């Protein structure tokens, strides 16, 4: 990484712009990351709101009539969540998104299937949120802890 930084420091502004543009064209993730980084100063909630909207769309399109499809959909939505979490370095945003995901699983009845894969997925996300909350500021810890405990005790 240090070598990469060193090499980038030798490039001109025009070359850097060209390189960043090419990176954005390579994948949706790169493009999304660049978009959020450029716009987060103007609207810090933009990232969280757009990920929640994307998760809502994914949850809305799920066929919950069969546990197999429900399980596969929950796993696919979790993969979307994990991709989004990689784009954010803000731990509070990550916790909020994980708790939102768990909230939706509960709210939409995914846990009613009592399928071990869905239950494990839920508990792993709760554990992730718990670990992230421990590293946050005390005020944020208390805010998120109430929500986390509410989600953890209902199961």
Q: What would the principal axes of the Cα set say about the shape?
A: globular
Output the helix-strand order: HHHHHHHH
Major β-sheet profile: none
Strand content: under 5%
Q: What structural class do the secondary elements suggest?
A: mainly alpha
What's the pLDDT, averaged over the residues? Answer: 90
How many helices in DSSP terms?
8
**What is the tally of beta strands?**
0
**Unreliable residue stretches:** none
Please bin the fraction of helical residues: over 70%
How large, in whole angstroms, is the Cα Rg?
Answer: 19 Å
Give the distance, in angstroms, between the N- and C-terminal Cα atoms.
43 Å
Ordered list of secondary-structure elements with their pairings:
Elements (H helix, E strand, L loop, with lengths): L1 H8 L3 H14 L1 H12 L6 H15 L6 H21 L3 H17 L8 H19 L3 H16 L2
């Amino acid at each position: 990484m240090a070598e990469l930084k060193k090499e980038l420091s030798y490039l001109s502004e025009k070359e850097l712009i060209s390189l960043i543009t090419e990176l954005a064209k390579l994948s949706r993730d790169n493009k999304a990351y660049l978009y959020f980084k450029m716009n987060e100063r103007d609207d810090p909630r933009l990232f969280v709101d757009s990920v929640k909207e994307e998760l809502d769309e994914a949850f809305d399109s799920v066929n919950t009539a069969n546990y197999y499809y429900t399980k596969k959909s929950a796993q696919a939505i979790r993969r979307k969540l994990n991709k989004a979490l990689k784009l954010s370095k803000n731990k509070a945003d990550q916790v909020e998104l994980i708790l939102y995901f768990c909230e939706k699983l509960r709210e939409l009845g995914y846990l009613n299937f009592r399928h071990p894969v869905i239950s494990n997925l839920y508990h792993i996300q709760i554990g992730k949120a718990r670990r992230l909350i421990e590293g946050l500021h005390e005020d944020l810890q208390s805010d998120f802890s109430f929500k986390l405990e509410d989600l953890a005790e209902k199961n």
